[in-house]
Amino acid sequence: MTGLKYALFTGCTAKNSTPELMKSTEAIAKKLGIELIELKEASCCGASHLQDFDEFLSLVLNARNICYAEKLGLDLVTICNTCNLNLLIADQKLKADADLRRRVNEKLAEVGLEYKGTSRVRHFLYVLIEDFGMEKLEEMVEKPLDGFNIAPFYGCHNIRPASTQNAANGKEDPYRPTSLERVIAAIGGNAVEYASKNKCCGFHADLQAPKTSTMLTANALVDAMDNNADMIVTPCPLCHLNMDIKQKASSKAIGREIHLPILHLPQAIGLALGLSTEELGLKHNIVKPAFAL
Prior knowledge:
The chain is an alpha/beta fold. It has helices spanning 13-16, 19-32, 50-53, 55-72, 81-96, 98-108, 124-132, 134-140, 162-165, 179-186, 210-226, 237-245, 247-254, 265-272, and strands at 4-9, 34-38, 76-78, 121-123, 149-152, 190-191, 231-234, 262-264.
């Protein structure tokens, strides 16, 4: 055991729409000796949509989520980029504004909670890098992914806005991020360099502008393919979901056949650690990664 222990905020998507993310995260955490305590009382983070309608309510909800990690005396770790962003925004606003914190705590008192700001909000990706360590991960690799060109896809909410994310992810440059490349190197893969790796996948634009959303998805997929990627790896369940299910629509929109496996980061790590396809939930992926099945 590593002695690393965290409160896990799963978010909605990993529990309902992408069970492969939850399975693979739990599997690699067990393999690496990382203890994750699921916050079963937690609610949705607002998904960057509630925030547009009722900002105060979103602050109360996310403060409530953080409170459950504080009660355990643990950092809050999330496996969703969008959850990470919304939790961070709430945490930083409440720490910076005493009056806002007082008003939020007045509402939390109705359910017996008080936000204190004692738990850090972090993404699992950066816990792996900063706490577990890439050298140790490399030492535990049983089946290195050598021979595979792996395209990292960061998504929007794990690296932007920099003013919010810098406090949580080692000041990674949103224009030249490197964390996924470091993980890919540790598990033996060849990281593909391509322009779209830190672009938007189109997920949050889908309801308002579906054609634009599909083109954003298609452009990222084709860019990875044109740079000889065998797969895309992302730490974001929304990016994974969007890029996995929209390949037929993207092919039609751009006039090219698109077929590219999209793996959650824990799935790729799990393959290198020698975990089974069942443990990693690879049967749930829409575009089946034939090399792993």
